[in-house]
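re: ur question from earlier - yeah i can do the single chain one, its not a big deal. heres the input i used so u can compare w yours
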Amino acid sequence: MVMRGLSGFPITPTTEDGRPLPADLSRLVRRLAAAGVDSIGVLGSTGGYAYLNPDTRTHVLEIALEAAARTVPVIAGIGALRTDTSVALARHAADAGAAGLLLAPMSYTPLTEDEVHRHFHAVADASDLPICIYNNPSTTHFNFSPALLARLAMLPTVTAVKMPLPLDSDFAAEIFRLRRDLPRGFLIGYSGDWGCADALLQGADAWFSVAAGLWPEQALELTRAARAGDRAATDRLQARFQPLWDLFRAYGSLRVVYAAAGIMGLTEARPPRPILPLPDRLTANVEAAIGALQP
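and the output i got, formated as tokens:
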């Protein structure tokens, strides 16, 4: 159940040399917990996991768990280049009190399906926490085949998948195929914020959301409308998000949410280098997108 509904993914504010800013991260996590999101996803792509060393990542998770104060489940991203690193992060997450794991198959050398299966098997053996498969080919350059998803779903603790938006936008067909091929009760969620309301309307179980990391109340309202099948309310709320979606698609969600967090006074942190902040000429666009989301 921890993988169902709206999962908000906050950024991980750090200094320029990669040290976490505990007060800023705690502020972001507390906002999500107060809003009542279904879960908080720490150290996903929005959380910059690929730019942080393992010791920093364990520290970040501990800060987030303390800020969430057990009011909202915390899912820990544990993707890493080495299997032993992912295993160690999984064990730490279990010991620290995380409620679930998000695992992406990071690589430098392209991975085979057998290598990814063994990677997941090793992590599944490391703890009893539920694991969500993170299928994010735009960053990992690995796309899970239906056959591999079915193999991984046979592992007892692999209980969910975080899918990218389908290229043809046919959520109904893709969700039908996934439900046909995967075990009963296996949870199907999506990322790619601008398309996730449509996924929920078509029966997806979860939205893994960048926007919810800064605007949890608004994302919850959209989630509830879409899960209830209310197309009119969903379209109305999507229109409020549209300026933000346009920025996400044009400049990348990570750059945009860092800029927005600064404008909103939540942190002065910048994206991890070599990623550069949005240019100043786009500040007015971000401000307009923030304004469109206000009640």
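The domain at 5-234 is CATH 3.20.20.70 (TIM Barrel). not sure if urs matches, ping me
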